[in-house]
Design a protein that fits this description.
Blueprint lengths: L1 H24 L1 H6 L11 H24 L5 H21 L8 H22 L1
Helix pairs in contact: 1-3, 1-5, 3-4, 4-5
Length: 124
C-alpha cells in the first residue's frame, strides 16, 4: 500500500507542479490556452492563486513525508488538492457544460482522495 501511495503521490505532484507552475508564473499563457477556457475571464491574481495553491499542494504531497517534518501535512495537501478538483468541477466545468474536461478532473480527484484516505489510515 505504501508503494502505491508513493507512486500516486509522485504522479500527482509532477502533474500539479507542471500545471501550477504555468498558472503561477505565466497567467497570460494560461488565458490563451484553448484547453483552459476557465481562465479567459479571470484576473491574473486569481490564476496565480490557483497555480500557487497547486504548487503548494504538490510540494505538500512529497516534502513532509520525505523530511519527516510534520508528515500529517501530506494528508492536508491531498485534501486541498481534492478541494481544488471539486471546485473546478462544480464551479467551472459543470456550469459551463464543459463535459469533455470533467473526466480528467475526476481522475485527479480520485487519486487525491486515495492519497488522503491511504495516508490518513497509515497515520491513525
Amino acid at each position: 500500500m505504501n508503494i502505491a501511495l508513493w507512486i500516486i503521490q509522485g504522479l500527482l505532484a509532477a502533474m500539479y507542479l507542471m500545471a501550477g507552475s504555468m498558472k503561477a508564473f505565466q497567467p497570460a499563457k494560461v488565458r490563451e490556452n484553448p484547453q483552459m477556457t476557465w481562465a479567459k475571464n479571470r484576473s491574473d491574481v486569481f490564476i496565480r492563486f490557483v497555480g500557487t495553491s497547486e504548487l503548494l499542494g504538490a510540494l505538500g504531497l512529497i516534502l513532509p513525508l520525505i523530511t519527516g517534518i510534520l508528515p500529517w501535512l501530506t494528508v492536508l495537501a491531498a485534501v486541498g488538492l481534492t478541494l481544488i478538483q471539486l471546485l473546478a468541477i462544480f464551479t467551472e466545468h459543470l456550469p459551463k457544460k464543459e463535459f469533455n474536461v470533467i473526466p480528467v478532473n475526476i481522475v485527479l480527484l480520485a487519486l487525491a482522495v486515495f492519497v488522503t484516505i491511504g495516508r490518513w489510515t497509515l497515520f491513525s
